Every structure is written in C-alpha cells, then in structure tokens.
C-alpha cells in the first residue's frame, strides 16, 4: 500500500495546523478587505486613485452598497484570487477536522491505540482510492469539478471514519459487562446521525444526478452512500442484538443465529455493492489500459475472493447445521434432567439441548459453532465427522513420505488406517483452511520406525495420548496393558497390531482397571466444576497421585488437575489416611503456607462482588496477599537453609530438593506434605513461639539480603 | 460473538474467585476490558520454581471459548516451553487446527470445555515437568537437559526476581 510512505511523513499537530489555517484565512480576508477598499476608492473617487491606495480609508462615507453586498463583494474578491481560494479551502478542511475531533471527544473520549490505527489506515486507504477515482476514473480536468468531488468525498470520509470508530468502539464496549448506559446511548445517537446524513447525501445524489450529471454520476454517488448506510446499519443491528442479550436474563439460544445472519446479509450486501461499484467504474471509465484500471482490477479481484470465501463459509455453515440436525437428536426432557448440568461450552443452563452419540449434551447453537471449526465432541474428543462423507473419498496412495500425518487426521481416520494402511485426508471438506493430503503407511515402514527411530525415551504425556488412541479402537483392553505395550513399541500402530495378533497380555477379567475407568471419565468430570470447590489438589500436584500399584504415570498436560481432582476424590480415603484433614481448606493452608496464620483464600476468596470496582480491588488485594505470602515463605526458607541448627526438617532443604528433582511423583508429594505435618501438630503455645522466631528471622534475612 | 464469550468469562471469573485453586489468582485487571486477564501462578513445590510468583497475561479471543486464549508471562522466566518473550507453548493453548511443533495429538489441545483454571493448572504442571521435546526456548531446553544445576540456579534467580527480592 502506498500508505507506508505517508505514515513516515511528519504531520504537524492539530493545534499548529489550526493556528496556521486561521492565520492564513485572516490574511486572506484582510487582503480581500484591502482589495475591496481599493476597488471602492476607485468607484467613489475615480480621479484620485493614488491617495486611496496608501490612505485606505476604513469606512468611506459614500458607501454605495449594503453590508450584505459588501460581504458578497469580498467573497468575490477572495474567489477571484488564487491563493485566497486555497486558504479558504484549507480553512474548510480545518473546520471539518475540528468537527470530527469534537464529535470524537464527545462520543468516544480518548481513542484507544487500535482505534487510532484503524482510523488512520482507513483514512489513507480512502484517500488513495478516491484519488484514483477522481483523477483515474472520472478523469476530471476542471478545477471546479475537482473541488466539488473533493468536498463530497471529504464529507463521506468523515462519516466513514466515524462509522469505523463506532464499530471499533462497539466491539470494545461489548468486551465489558460494566459499561454505563450513557456510553451506549452516545454511540447509538452518533450512528443515527450518520444514518440521517447518509439519507441526506443520497437525496443530494438523486438531485445532482437528475438535474445535472446524469445516471452514471448518480450511480457512483449513490453507491457510496448506500455502502456507508449498510455499514452503519450493521453496527446498529449488532448493537441492538448485543444490548438485548445483555439485558436479557438467561440464555438466548437463537442469538447466535441472528448474529450470524445479520453478519452474513450485511457482509454480502456490502461486498456486492462494492463489487458493482468498482465494476461500473471499470466499464464506464474506458480506462482499460491505465494504472487506474489496474488498481480497480486488483480491488475487484479482492472483493470477489472475499465474496467467494463468505459464500463458502456459509455453505459450510449450512452443511454443519443440516448434518447436525439430521444426526444429533434433541435431548429428551428425561435426558436433560438426568444430565442436570450446564452446557460445557457456554456454562449456562440448558432448557433444550442436542445429544451427541457419546452422550454429551450441548446447546444447539454452541454445538453448531464448535462443529463449524472442528468435528469432535468437545468433551471426549469422539470423532463426529459424517461417516458417509468419509467413505466417498477414494483412498489415494500417498506421495508425502517424509511428513507425519496431521495428528487430528490421524485421530479421525484411525479406523481407516487400521484396515488398509493408507488414508486420504481432505481437510477442505471440513474447514476450508485445512490442507488435503494422503499418506501411505505400510507395515514394514512402521516396524522400521518403531525399532530404529523411536528409541528415545518416550514422554509420559505422549504415552498417555497414544494410550487414548489405542483405547478408542479397543475399549475393552485395559489401559495398563496398553501402556505397557506402548512402552515397548512406542507406536500406536504397532500396539494395535500387537493387540490384534494377541501379543498383548490381557489380565484376567477380575482385575480392576481403575485407571482406565478414571481416564475415560476424566473429560466428563472435567466439564463439571468440582462441587464446593474444595478440591484437594495439593499445590505442586503437577503429578497425579496415581497409586503406585497401578504402575501408570500420567502427565496431566490436558486437564491434568481435573484428573488429579478426580483421582484424589476417588482415592481420597487412601490419601487421607496419610495426612489427616488434607481435604479441609484450613489444614491445607497450614500445610502449604507453612507459617501463615491467616488463611489467604478464606480471607479474600469466597466472595464475588457485584460491583466491578470492588472486584478489581479484591483481585488486587488477593494478588498482593499471595505475593506477600510467597515472599515470607521464601525468606523463611532462605533462613532455614542458612542456620544449620534450625529445625530444618520443616522445610525442604535445597539438596533434598535436588534429589527429588525432577521426578515429581506421588512419593515426593507425600514426603513433602508429611514434612510439614510436625508444624501443624505443634500445640498453640509452641506455634506462637515458633512464629515469633520466624518473624524475627525473616526480618534478619531481609536485612541480610539488603546488604547483599 | 463477544456477548457469549463475556458471559462465559464472567462465570469463570466468578468460579475462580469463589473456589480459587491453590497458588493461583486470576482475573481481569481492568474490567473495562474483560478479555485481558492477569494471572499469578505460584511455582510448584519441590521444583526449582518453588516459591516464585509468576505473573502472566491472558488474552482471550472474541469467540472464546471456541478458540483458546493466548498466554504470556510478563516476568522473566527461563523454561523450555516458554518462549524468551514470555509466550507459553503448551498443547492446551493450541487450537485443534494449528500444530506448531507437528507432534501434538488433538486430544491434548484446546476444546471449549477447557477453562482458564485448567490452563493455569496445566501451566503449573508444565513448570514442574518441562517437556523438552517441543522446546519453545531451545536454550532453556538444552540447559535443562545437559546442565541441570545451572538450570536450577537460573530458576532460583527468576524466583527471587519474581518476588521482587
């Protein structure tokens, strides 16, 4: 874009510009005044021109005209003189800018950086295209006509920029739940004013077209007006929907549909009008071999692509909706009651819902918007893509040998891959930006990979994932066997082969495969916020407290804590035996915050204020508190390291830490917690003394640090 | 879209305030913009980040929860899965479509049932157990693998710095 250069130009500040403009205009007026007087002198006393020029009488007694006539005379002189005209035009622009600035001040206040940037971009773009239009397409030669067009586009530009600002501001305001009504009213009033102005300009264009310039000019002018009108109308409609939604309690299920169709209609309307407008320019201007035509062609191409993209998206939308409606039935009343949970996507209650084959319920609208971008169940990742669509794709032998298949594709098409060892993934069928490719996987290749390449130690999270994939195919095989086999093979495919060929040892049916159970139920539990919230997740529970007997170490990279919570709830009893009252928040704080007497989360955590300001201050205070706590702990830890004779058992010393690091497993978690237990068991009196010692030590440590 | 995102964020904020997970505080700094949060994360115990309080910025897209938020540490932190500018690289923050490292399974990635709380807990576990196979900060990954003592030392410095001591 040519705007890059322009941005580097040092523009004068508004204040200097206004001052210069005013000075220039007053100079012009003064000049006109002088000139008029000279002229008057000539009229009143034609014999003595000489005296008049240097005398310049201010109010000659023989004033021949009225003051109105005097004014018109002056205007005539101003227009007659070249530089005066420019000064006046400049002044007009100055006024326009001031008006714009004033409106911006009143309605929007200070502009945000992104808004400023948008306005600037929009302004430069607009200038560029209108310049092309005036001098390239219309090929205007006459100064008066140029002036008229410039005026027209300046007004339009101002309105365009204001609309852009309204749009940006609307998007910004919709990001916050606590905006006073007056803000909304201001923006809406401005939008209404823009609409009226557009209507007025449209009338003007009809008038101009009808009386002077003919149908083509009328079409050009009207297209601009209508474009602007649709744009501002779109913002108004979105605004109305948003305000209605905000003041509407509960879920408004059809909201998404309204928003979607509003967007679709307005976007298509804008694009088609713009397209016709540009096409008209190209055809009317007879400018096939010029720079202007090139620019317009580029613009046409861009608009056309946009249009196509939008239509494609809409087709995808329709396809998703129809397939969703055909394949996922609405949940019955009983099912809803059984489920008795909020929609996992929007966290709102469900009066109506759709049920997926895996049994998960979602709002229709939420599910639809998710399915538009992905074809798996949000909760359990079950593949939901239409089987009929997949079978229509003929398997093609692959040519991408070096590349790994996309993991999601691998996931989706695992079943296909199983039977014929090669699959074709046509991403654009699902989402337009996904690539299409096909991959051939032969048995020998896998073996080679498995034996030679993948010998590096495999990561637990990867193992977990691979195990999931295998279990999608063989839900009956217990997880522990799968994981064991995966440890050896390091490959999903090989393990599956092994299972098929019976090489995997499956323990007798009596074996309780609890990990397997909990692993599969994890996503379901993940959707529900833990009741009561007192989830006994010990801090630093990066590792899951899996019972060692189960022999599976899962890294909870996905919803790890939820898993942990789940496990802990299940195995709560076992853990509780080791450390009494781990479930109790107070006790937990004692364990975790070592020497803190206050209970941080109890103090600040259990209240959610209705007022935004209060929430902000509460949040700030909680943060401060946390930092303060951490500082204390840090200082006391430093201290316990420094003093050898101190009862360093209360704190994990550094070398102790080093030994455990990095395998943060259950054992270390237990050891860590139990290391703190003596402190909590101490009687009150002892604790007071201990606290005062620590307090003093803390101060000493701080002093020492300052010295350092 | 922003309307439903706003409601959901409000619900999450409420839940995080009422039942905060240990060692985590998160919420919008300025309620004028509910789509930018700041989170404080305590370094997990028994790791080299123990005791540190790390500040991060979460930026939500307007179609949240359909797309994942972005997370960026605003304090210095030297970790294999955190870019040197603070951006966090974990699979839960990646949309099912994009796959910067080319190895993640879609099962680990973002889905609308994830939440801020789960992201932050995942980050805590990431701090505890770096994944040096998908290193965002190659330097850190190398140090972590080859020179653990040095890594711990650097981590200790960041902890100290994060506390403002």
From TrEMBL, chain A:
Organism domain of life: Eukaryota
Domain RING-type: 343-381
Region (Disordered): 385-409, 508-530
Gene3D superfamilies in alphabetical order: DNA helicase RuvA subunit, C-terminal domain (1.10.8.10), Zinc/RING finger domain, C3HC4 (zinc finger) (3.30.40.10)
Pfam families xrefs: CUE (PF02845), TPR_SYVN1_N (PF25563), zf-RING_2 (PF13639)
Location within or outside the cell: Membrane
GO MF term list: ubiquitin binding; ubiquitin protein ligase activity; zinc ion binding
Identification of the protein by name: E3 ubiquitin-protein ligase AMFR
UniProtKB/TrEMBL annotation, chain B:
Protein name as annotated: Ubiquitin-conjugating enzyme E2 G2
Catalytically driven reaction(s): S-ubiquitinyl-[E1 ubiquitin-activating enzyme]-L-cysteine + [E2 ubiquitin-conjugating enzyme]-L-cysteine = [E1 ubiquitin-activating enzyme]-L-cysteine + S-ubiquitinyl-[E2 ubiquitin-conjugating enzyme]-L-cysteine
Gene Ontology MF term list: ATP binding; ubiquitin conjugating enzyme activity
Active site: 89 (glycyl thioester intermediate)
Its job: Accepts ubiquitin from the E1 complex and catalyzes its covalent attachment to other proteins. In vitro catalyzes 'Lys-48'-linked polyubiquitination. Involved in endoplasmic reticulum-associated degradation (ERAD). Required for sterol-induced ubiquitination of 3-hydroxy-3-methylglutaryl coenzyme A reductase and its subsequent proteasomal degradation.
Superkingdom field: Eukaryota
Organism: Ridgeia piscesae (Tubeworm)
Root EC class: transferase
Oligomer and partners: Interacts with AUP1 (via C-terminus); the interaction recruits UBE2G2 to lipid droplets. Interacts with ubiquitin ligases AMFR/gp78 and RNF139/TRC8; recruitment to lipid droplets by AUP1 facilitates interaction of UBE2G2 with AMFR and RNF139, leading to sterol-induced ubiquitination of 3-hydroxy-3-methylglutaryl coenzyme A reductase and its subsequent proteasomal degradation.
Pfam families: UQ_con (PF00179)
GO annotation, biological process: ERAD pathway
PANTHER family: UBIQUITIN-CONJUGATING ENZYME E2
């Amino acid at each position: 874009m040519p705007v890059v250069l322009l941005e580097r130009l040092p523009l004068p500040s508004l204040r200097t510009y206004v001052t210069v403009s005013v000075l220039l205009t007053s100079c012009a007026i003064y000049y006109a005044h002088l000139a008029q007087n000279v002229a008057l002198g000539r009229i009143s006393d034609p014999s003595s021109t000489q005296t008049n020029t240097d005398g310049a009488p201010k109010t000659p007694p023989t004033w021949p005209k009225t003051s109105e006539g005097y004014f018109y005379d002056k205007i005539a002189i101003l227009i007659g003189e070249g530089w005066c005209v420019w000064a006046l035009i400049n002044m007009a622009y100055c006024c326009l800018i001031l008006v714009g600035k004033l409106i911006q001040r009143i309605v929007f206040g200070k502009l945000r950086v992104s808004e400023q940037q948008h306005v600037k971009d929009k302004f430069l773009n607009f200038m560029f295209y209108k310049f092309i239009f005036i001098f390239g397409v219309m090929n205007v030669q006459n100064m008066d006509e140029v002036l008229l067009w410039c005026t027209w586009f300046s007004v339009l530009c101002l309105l365009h920029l204001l609309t852009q600002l309204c749009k940006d501001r609307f998007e910004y305001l919709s990001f916050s739940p606590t905006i006073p009504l007056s803000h909304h009213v201001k923006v809406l009033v401005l939008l209404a004013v823009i609409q009226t102005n557009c209507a007025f300009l449209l009338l003007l264009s009809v008038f101009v077209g009808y009386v002077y310039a003919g149908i083509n000019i009328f079409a050009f002018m009207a297209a601009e007006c209508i474009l602007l009108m649709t744009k501002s109308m779109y913002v108004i409609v979105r605004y109305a929907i948003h305000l209605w939604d905000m003041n509407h309690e509960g879920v408004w299920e059809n909201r998404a549909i309204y928003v979607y169709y509003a967007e679709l209609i307005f976007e298509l309307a804008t694009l088609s009008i713009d397209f016709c407008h540009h096409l008209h320019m190209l055809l009317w201007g007879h400018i096939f071999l010029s720079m202007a035509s090139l620019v317009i062609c580029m613009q046409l191409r861009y608009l056309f692509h946009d249009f196509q993209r939008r239509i494609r998206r809409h087709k995808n939308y329709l396809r998703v909706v129809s397939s969703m409606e055909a394949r996922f039935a609405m949940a019955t009343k009983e099912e809803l009651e059984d489920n008795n949970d909020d929609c996992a996507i929007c966290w709102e209650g469900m009066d109506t819902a759709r049920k997926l084959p895996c049994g998960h319920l979602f709002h229709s609208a939420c599910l639809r918007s998710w399915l538009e971008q992905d074809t798996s169940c949000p909760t359990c990742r079950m593949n939901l893509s239409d089987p009929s669509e997949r079978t229509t794709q003929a398997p093609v032998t692959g040519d991408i040998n070096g590349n790994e298949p996309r993991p999601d594709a691998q996931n989706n098409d695992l079943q296909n891959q199983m039977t014929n060892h090669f699959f074709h993934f046509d991403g654009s069928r699902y989402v337009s930006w996904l690539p299409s490719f096909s991959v051939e996987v032969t048995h020998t290749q896998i073996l080679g990979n498995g034996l030679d390449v993948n010998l590096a130690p495999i990561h637990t999270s990867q193992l977990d994932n691979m195990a999931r994939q295998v279990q999608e195919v063989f839900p009956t095989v217990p997880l522990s066997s799968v994981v064991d086999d995966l440890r050896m093979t390091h490959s999903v495919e090989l393990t599956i082969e092994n299972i098929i060929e019976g090489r995997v040892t499956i323990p007798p049916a009596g074996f309780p495969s609890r990990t397997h159970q909990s692993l599969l139920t994890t996503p379901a539990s993940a959707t529900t916020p833990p009741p009561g919230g007192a989830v006994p997740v010990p801090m630093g529970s990066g590792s899951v407290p899996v019972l060692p007997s189960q022999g599976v170490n899962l890294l909870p990279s996905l919803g790890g804590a939820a898993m942990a919570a789940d496990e802990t709830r299940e195995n709560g009893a076992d853990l509780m035996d080791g450390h009494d009252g781990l479930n109790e928040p107070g006790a937990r704080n004692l364990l975790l915050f070592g020497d803190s007497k206050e209970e941080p989360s109890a103090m600040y955590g259990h209240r959610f204020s209705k007022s935004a300001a209060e929430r902000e201050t509460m949040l700030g205070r909680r943060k401060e508190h946390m930092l303060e706590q951490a500082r204390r702990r840090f200082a006391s830890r430093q201290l316990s390291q420094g003093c050898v004779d101190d009862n360093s058992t209360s704190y994990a010393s550094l070398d102790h830490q080093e030994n455990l690091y990095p395998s943060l497993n259950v054992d270390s978690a237990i050891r860590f917690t139990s290391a703190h237990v003596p402190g909590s068991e101490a009687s009150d009196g002892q604790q007071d003394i201990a606290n005062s010692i620590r307090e003093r030590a803390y101060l000493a440590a701080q002093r020492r640090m300052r010295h350092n | 879209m922003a309307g439903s995102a706003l409601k959901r964020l409000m619900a999450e904020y409420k839940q995080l305030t009422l039942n905060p997970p240990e060692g985590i505080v998160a919420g919008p700094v300025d309620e004028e913009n509910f789509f930018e949060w700041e989170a404080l994360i305590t370094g997990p115990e028994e790791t080299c980040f123990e005791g540190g309080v790390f500040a991060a910025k979460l930026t939500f897209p307007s179609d949240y929860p359909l797309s994942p938020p972005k997370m960026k540490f605003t304090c210095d932190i030297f970790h294999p899965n955190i870019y040197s500018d603070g951006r966090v690289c974990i699979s839960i923050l990646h949309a099912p479509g994009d796959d910067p490292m080319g190895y993640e399974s879609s099962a680990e990635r973002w889905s609308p049932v994830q939440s801020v709380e789960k992201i932050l807990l995942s980050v805590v576990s990431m701090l505890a157990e770096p994944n040096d196979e998908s290193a965002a900060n190659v330097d850190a990954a190398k140090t972590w693998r080859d020179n653990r003592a040095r890594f711990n030392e650097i981590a200790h410095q960041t902890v100290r710095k994060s506390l403002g001591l």
